User: What shape does this take?
Amino acid sequence: MRVWAKSGVAFNGVIAVVVGLGCALFALMAGLAWPAIVATSVALAGIAWLMTIRQDIRRHFVVKHPFPDEWHEILNRSVSFYRKLDEPAKRRFERDVQIFLGEQRIYGVEGQEVPIETKLLVAASAATLSHGRPDWEWGRTRDIVVYPKAFNDEYDVADGAKIAGMVQEHGPILFSDRDLKYGYQRSADGYNVGLHELAHVVDLEDGRADGIPGDLNWMAAMPWTDRIHKDLTNKHGRHLKRLLGNYAYTNEAEFFAVSVEAFFERPKKLEQRDPELYRLLSHYFNVDPRTGRVIEPVD
Ligand SMILES: [Zn+2]
Assistant: This one.
């Protein structure tokens, strides 16, 4: 997540100039005097520019806030990926957490209060997935709804309920608070609901739950199609299946989401058992999950 969009400020400046020139033309046709034409055009161009960069400005002020000590403690205690980072990378991760929390709507089911630890773990999941990809933007059309624990198909928290998280195709992201925390308590078992559900969001970026990151163009997606087909049809052997578990083999989308969990939590094992899948994931996320270092430098 970038505070200032990479080419946005200049691009939006061009839009503002076009708006200004358009206004000048109208004012000229309306017969206004030159001082009025200039003043109106400059004012409207300025408003247009501010409107187009308002998200950047908002982010600028959000990240100006000092990162609270309590948040530091929670990230240090619970997020192993964060602990691996060097100091500049930690600051960038914290900034991403601030931006995510500043822009996303996270609320508890039936009006229940969501603890800050839970919000931070959701934001940390997002910051982990986008750490090597600063141009990735988490959409703001989905609400994030937190249930106290697992729920069933009727969205009830009832005995025997097993759903720990869910992303509805065009709807909200649902999390079980208990499972979210459990995923972060055990950071090397390949189970992390936060990463899993947000991996689904990455997959769904293009509207298709096909197990391929939705922002890849068709050429970049080709090796993914091939790899996922081979893995789902179990051509790659039982070793990977033992690592990922049967649930990964439900369909392409679950295969991707579970692979992302394994990539960040059990990278060495994933690399041993399926180097090609590991390479695709590390290339896409642009990060070495063993060290937290980005592969291609980000600015
Ligand atoms: Zn899933």
Observations:
- Strands lie at 106-108, 144-147, 165-167, 173-176, 287-288, 293-294.
- The first strand starts at residue 106 and ends at 108.
- Residues 196, 200, 254, 257 surround zinc ion (CB under 6 Å).
